[in-house]
Specification:
With 124 residues, the chain is mainly alpha-helical. Helix content is 73%, strand content 0%.
């Protein structure tokens, strides 16, 4: 079994990892410490965000809700456009029937999309 020897700086010396050299002044050392503190703070924030399960779940629900709302809006707009194209003429019962059927189909599709999305979010 072989072991690699890892070279370490002598005890009590400070090596700046990015530059591979010792800081030349107290100001350089302070600047390096400030940079490392910022990096550590960013890392802690990222880990805290990943660990916040409730916030991630709320974000997921909000994204799903926005998607459902947008799909419902598009479906409603499409149904209205189709209904406008089949606008009943006075005294034309067939056209009125087609318009009513188109509106019922649009409502059923919107409801089905909402229920399906709700079931998907409940299973997660």
């Amino acid at each position: 079994m072989t072991t690699e020897h890892v070279s370490r700086p002598p005890s009590g010396s400070t090596v700046v990892p990015e530059q591979g050299r010792r800081p030349q002044s107290t100001e350089e050392l302070r600047a390096e410490i400030a940079r490392l503190r910022r990096e550590l703070g960013d890392t802690v924030e990222a880990l805290a965000a990943k660990a916040d399960v409730k916030a991630r779940a709320r974000d997921s629900v909000a994204r799903t809700r926005a998607g459902i709302t947008e799909r419902a809006r598009r479906t409603t707009a499409a149904a209205r456009a189709r209904a406008a194209g089949a606008a009943p003429h006075p005294g034309d019962p067939e056209a009125a029937r087609r318009t009513g059927m188109a509106m019922m189909a649009a409502g059923a599709a919107t409801t089905a999309a909402g229920v399906a999305a709700w079931f998907r979010t409940r299973r997660r």
